[in-house]
Each structure stands twice: as C-alpha cells, then as structure tokens.
Hints:
Blueprint: H1 3-34, H2 44-63, H3 67-70, H4 76-96, H5 107-113, H6 115-144, H7 146-165, H8 169-189
Helix pairs in contact: 1-2, 1-4, 2-4, 2-8, 4-6, 6-7, 7-8
Amino acid sequence: MDQFEYVMVLVSIIVGLGIAHVLFGIGGIVDRLSRRGDGLELSLAHAAWLGHCFLWLIMFWWWEYRLSTTVADWTMGLYLFLIFYAITIFLLQVVLIPRTWDGVTSLKEYFLERRVWFYSLFAFGTILDNVDSYLIGGLQYILDTGYVGMGLSIATIPVVIIGIRSTNIRTHNIMATIFFGWQIMIGFGHLEALSP
C-alpha cells in the first residue's frame, strides 16, 4: 500500500458513510410514501439539492485520484484538509436527510427549516473544493474547467445569500434545479478518465 492509498482509506470511509446515509434516506422516503395514511410531501428543492450533493460526494472521491501523482510528500495538514473536506460534503447529506422520520411530514418544510445550515455548509464546501482543485493541478487545472466549472463556484455566492434569506420554496426549486443540472454537466461532461 502506497502513501496515497493509505491516506485515502479514511477519506473513502467518510465518503462511503455519506453514500450510505443518502441510500438509507431514500429508503426512508420510499417507506413513508408506501404507507397508508402516513403521507410525506415531497420537494423539488430537496430532491435536486440532494442529487447535487450526492453527485458532489461521488465526484470528490473520483477527482482525488489525481493527488496520487501530484502530491509526492503527504503532510498531516494535507491529510486533515482532505478529511475535513470529505466531512463537509458528508454533513451536507446529513442536513438534507432526517435521521428519524418522526414528525417529518413535508420535505419542503424540512428543507426550509434547515436551509441556513445547508447553504452555510454549501458555501464552505465550495471554498474547500476550490482549494482542493488547486492542490490537484494548480491554477491551470481550475482554468481548464472553463466557464462551466468556474461559473459554478462564482454562482455559489449569490445562491448562498439568496438561499439563506429566502423562505420562498420556488426560489429554492429554481436554484437547486439549475445547480443539479450544472453538476451533471460538470460530472459527465468534464470528468477525465481515471488516470494520473
């Protein structure tokens, strides 16, 4: 096992926990929808942000492979940075999905009640993502993502401000849908092959 593989073990566990949390959450939603008399109001904003953050979690793990060739000497600071970044993306999933479904009757209301936490973590995660991109390939790597990649980072600023302030679910629906589509474009349009 080389240094990169050793470092990525804990990061992979955190990513795996995030994926498991999302899958259990979707299972909980399906369970609630299949019960009689135990309705659950769905939310486009909740679903789109969940899709966006789930893809972010998966793509984070994929992109980190580039560190296997760009980092020669691993430091505790870099190691802690990666763990902290993985935890931040994991927490986005935790904020979006209830741990227990007791009293949750509307995912729209659930999302609106937690929007300040969600958008704060979202902003922080975007900052960490830009630092991570710089570590992976420097400024050129960030510029190579083009308007699509850089636009996502820049658009995060007004989205976070509006998201924290607005209680209008239509506003959140629009922002979440655009960002989910944007994440799909980045993920499937700009992801390079798994090579150093």
